[in-house]
## 1
Amino acid sequence: MLDRITALAMKERLSTALFDNSPCHIAVIDRNRQVVLTNPAFERTFANATHTTCHQLYKDCDIPCDDCLVEHTFADGIAHLSKEQGVTRCNKAIFYEAQAIPLLDEGGAVEHVVLISTDTTRTVELEQGLNQAERLANVGLSTAGLAHTIKNILAGLEGGIYMVDTGIAKEEPQRLQSGWKMVQDYIHQVESLVKNLLSYARQSESHPESVDLGELADEIVALYASKANMAGIALSTHTEAGTPHLLLDRAAMHAALANLVTNAIDACTWDPNLDKDHSIVISIKPQDSGARIEVADNGTGISAENQQRLLVTTFTTKGMRGTGLGLLLTKKTAAAHGGALSFESRAGEGTTFRIDIPSTPHGVQT
């Protein structure tokens, strides 16, 4: 057994050794956010500078962080942990996990905060690489299906061109208009196909902002009301009270919701049961940890066999009329916001798709 004096001396030597030799970046910060002490690992990565603010050293920024770990620990005396992104002394981006630990004075008050950070850049880069590889692999798996889709579009364009040519030759305006309408429709399909393919294959820059999901749903209804009415489909929204505004990439979420609504319109349009009063309802609901978007239709539904394959690759239930990229883009968008895409369906009865989004997603990358 070590006596108390020997144990204290050993503890002091151990603390010094750990501080000097730890691979983690360690900085001691005062109440003015000034860094007063750093270890060698910190100095090698960030800078050998004290009496400089933590946000200047870690982020190369003159403005304090909005959600500052150090301030939280000074305020409540509790350790806090988060994932961060900063800039090294060589002006390179660095990802790290930071833990703020209170350092108490003799009276038990928080005198300083020790910020310990671990470099996770390599792990983040590997995860991003795997995600990109997965997207490209799915695109590769769908090449044959896309080629078949393009072939069908070209055949449709040839038919439209033939209608236009014969309409001009025979001076039949109605035939000419029908042929031109066919050409326009198939050109729109080509445009949609290319945009979806590019969006899925690449990592796009996100622009998070506070979004009212109820307003977003209303925009989608206004956008597709005419198409739904022409097909005899009732399209509506329902937003429950208490649904929070969320930090989202509005454009990406708009596209995701639009994909679900157009799929629902197709499901109702192609439903062989003509006795139904077809309807689609977009529901916005609060959740304990965020919000849920639901798109429910009473269309043709999805068979049990097809449900197993629907969100895995670019599988589509639309045959020659679809590529399956729309749902994969929606799934990608949900995951980029820290959420998930799921669905329930019964063949012949309808389908409900759900996007669950947390209220505080870490980083939005689409």
## 2
Amino acid sequence: MNFKATDYKLMNVADGRVFEDGGWTLADAQSPSPSLVRAVYSQKKFTPRDDLDGLYRYAEWMPVKRTLPGSGAPVTYHSKELGAYLGLDNLYITFSGYIPEIGATMKTCSFKETEAYSVCARIPADSRRILVVQSAGNTARAFAQVCSDNDIPVLICVPKDNFNDLWFNEPLKDCVKIIASPAGSDYFDAIALGDKVCTSDRFFAEGGAKNVARRDGMGTTLLSAVECIGRIPDVYFQAVGSGTGAIAVWENNLRLIEDGRFGSHKMKLFLSQNAPFTLMHDSWKAGSRALCDITPEQSRRAAEVILAKVLSNRKPPYGLAGGVFDAMSDAGGDFFLASNDDIVRWILTFRNLEGYEIFPAAATAVTSLEKAVKTGAVGRQDVIMLNVTGGGWLHAQAKGFILKEPDLVLDPALPAEEIVSKVEKLF
């Protein structure tokens, strides 16, 4: 079908300056200080598109130029079993994964597909440059699958220790190449590797949290919840590595308030991390816009220990204008921690209650919900949205799966010219 590109402009969150998107604008070149830019849509009403499939039913609030086949939207439902177990009457689970029985069809089992289908649909169909995506795991799998299915050239950078997350039901097409930083490295090392690749004009950076398409793709989780519930929830729970998903729902919360039909309140943001990787938790508890100090060695050791390895970003978009600190300061909320033991317990308990398995990051969020109930941070009648960011891998892998080994392992300390030369030969 013919699809008309979404009509929007960009706004510098720090000073409110509104300007045109140059096509792949990630920041305001005129901004005097670090700031996210936000999409400002001409459509001010929340208007799901019944004529579009999957994620693109929310295209009016996604900065996309086209649609791609194969996407799935997050699924929201009223949880009776987990809600009853925790003593909550109005617990809603927004699930992104692969459980066809409830309408969830993300075959990589992760809400990172919401990012991938939105970001890739922002790329013009005639683009010849190669997208560069840096990831701790789930984002890599989502972008690899979406780009392979839609013949979009992409280079994905991951830490070597996380390559077990790169499982797929069938071999990827040659348009997808994966490089890794060495064993013992972390997500930030993979970011450094990708940054050096992007010194070549042949490649362009996806942009992470700076990319409005990534955030507004992730923000569809709240749109799914509001469609189901009929109002803005009171409280939101999610585990965070970068915190981009939390920023995304906060931004869509503001759009829904402007719409006016779903409430005028802001959801409290209850976020969580997997101890001992506690960077944003510690910074928030200290009341600090600046991130607490953490050395690369401390970061790598903590990332190696935690089960939810996707929650191990040591340079998250926390303190810049429009980042996690601003989102939580504006909406209210708090940070919680989950131990590895908590995560294992909740993977098993959630499976018994809700009938499907979830990823460690999602179990981290469930742990925070349990702790919020015990401390009285949420009440029985509160309307609660629990973002279960991934699961259903037993269903997905029942069809068989293969692991994709990295095409190259490169030390990010190498000169950029040498890294670029080696990577260009892959394409």
